[in-house]
Write a structure and sequence with these properties.
The structure is a single chain. The relative contact order is 0.17. It is globular and about 45 Å long. The longest helix is centred in the first third of the chain and has 10 residues. With about 180 residues, it is mainly beta. A hairpin with a 4-residue loop joins strand 4 and strand 5. The N and C termini lie far apart (about 70 Å). The protein has one domain: Calycin beta-barrel core domain (Lipocalin, Beta Barrel).
Length: about 180
């Protein structure tokens, strides 16, 4: 078996270029796919965490505008169901934190003058955004997850899910399919 000399091995290692570490992802443009005007189809499960399969469907529009400089946007969302009283009007403020490399999603109730807290926080990986928070639901704290995808140009989807068991299982209760308006 050949013997390697220590100095020769070190010289050989020094000649190999250092493997470049990937630059940390700057996600300030991760929501750029959502900018513009959209036609919205929403399915909402009104009875949550009770094994319900009754969905209410809505149709409407959304408009997403950036703030100057990027890294933030605001969405105006309005949909109407088939029955009286099935109207949802909402606003979302999305802010990117470049230090944490994460987005915080804030639901705004302009009519009531409230900003929902805590924000839903997360990031995109490989084109899929996952965002989490904990919220009270019927007297207990549950984990909430939003998943954003945009696999085809001009289409986007957001699903909201609740987990009563700390993330071991999830119930999807809000499916929002968006199609870009021309």
């Amino acid at each position: 078996m050949p013997k390697f000399r220590h100095a020769a091995a070190l010289a050989a290692l020094a000649a190999i270029p250092a493997l470049a570490q990937p630059a940390p992802h700057d996600g300030r443009h991760d929501f750029d796919f959502l900018l513009g005007d959209w036609t919205v189809h929403l399915k909402r499960l009104p009875d949550r965490l009770v094994d319900s399969s009754r969905w209410i469907e809505y149709a409407g529009t959304a408009r997403v505008r950036p703030f100057v400089g990027g890294g933030a946007n605001v969405e105006e969302f309005e949909v109407q169901g088939a029955e009286p009283g099935q109207h949802i009007k909402a606003q979302t403020l999305r802010l990117y934190d470049p230090e944490a490399r994460q987005w915080s999603l804030h639901l705004l109730d302009v009519d009531a003058g409230r900003l929902s807290l805590p924000p839903t926080v997360g990031e995109f990986r490989d084109g899929r955004g996952e965002f989490f928070d904990a919220e009270p639901w019927k007297g207990r704290q549950i984990l909430v997850r939003y998943v954003w995808t945009h696999d085809e140009p001009g289409r986007a989807r957001m699903e909201q899910s609740f987990s009563p068991d700390g993330g071991r299982s999830w119930e999807v209760n809000w499916i929002c399919d968006m199609t870009r308006r021309e």
